[in-house]
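The pair is set out directly below:
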Amino acid sequence: MEHNLSVGLDIGTTKIVAMIGRKNDYGKLEILGIGKSKSLGVHRGVVNNITQTIQSIQQAVQEAEAASGLKIEDVTVGIAGQHIRSLQHSDYITRENSETVIDEEDIDLLINQVHKLVMLPGEEIIHVLPQEYKVDGQAEIKEPIGMYGGRLEANFHVVVGQITSIRNVGRCIKSSGLNLEGITLEPLASSNAVLSQEEKEAGVALIDIGGGTTDLAIFRDGIIRHTAVIPFGGNVITEDIKEGCSIIEKQAELLKIKFGSAWPGENKDNEIVSIPGLRGREPKEITLKNLSKIIHARVVEIIEQVYAEIKNYGHEEQKKKLIGGIVLTGGGSQLKHLKQLVEYITGMDTRIGYPNEHLAGDSDDDITSPLYATAVGLVLDGLKRQERKKIEEQEEEEIVEEKIVEEGTTEPIEEPTVQKPKKQRSSFLEKLTDRLKDFLDDAE
């Protein structure tokens, strides 16, 4: 596949989306093709039927290939699901020589130390995100590289997940005939697509309401501070409508999308919708007021759980206040009057997040729907990863050329002995991707 193309694969509970994109001349994201299929083998963000998931992935990929006329090989995939949890952790290293400046290696050493934390059986650390550093007791340092100091300390935001769930996702991708280019935490992908840098600086909570789960990511001072996955999403609302109105799931979903509202006061008592009965049975009449009461009860429950997580982070402390308020995205954010309800419960400014922050101006209205926030974020993530690789390759080439010029020879040299280029620290997710690839290769 071309170098400047990237494919995001969002494996959700209700739908699987494959999206192909590239950067245009103005540095904006241009979507070339999109494929969508019903997700059958995923429950609450976790794969529970490998065969069905593979079929759904292949269907979405074929659709995207047909729309763009391109062949998909490498994909960047998002992971979420109810098994993801996060914790705060502080750690430090004592440097042997405080006369030298702190460099990348010191930070790597500190981050690797955090990876040795003992987790519950079957759990593995997915992300280690440094918050702020301390050097010899001096606090609130954003970037310690280049400073002198003997003791380097940091607060970390650690994201943990079940390794088997991640391996199952990898298995599905490999069996679908695709290469796994990278893994990203879905709340991080969505936030790249819908949040502006100003919001991340001011402090903002991104709530991504999917079909099976609701993901939360909190940013402040441009750094991610807290993540959580709540095992409820739009599907439980549909389930409640189905039970409460004694209708089939398909009808419940349509009712929710067409007439659903999170605010019962909006509907008059005499507004009624008639639903055809099954196979010759009488049609059912449902009042919209009742419908919105059912939706309201469940939505309030979801928002309260998310708000409890925001309070956990410490939003009520002056220093940790989220000035940017809340941004709602994902398919569930399209529910009528949800914004007003969230503002009412949390007292925080709220807006709906559309993934048009980085999209080219002539993008389809469909693509700018909150439904596709995660997929757009994954495409962006894949492009970023490629740019990093390109820079590293260029730096290595330059060093080899310098060496040739220095020695005044044209003979090929085996090993440049010059100082290595300063590589960008590979994130743990890249290491996890490599380990997952090795695991899948060994499992063959």
About this structure: The chain is about 40% helix and 25% strand. The CA atoms of residues 57 and 420 lie 41 Å apart.
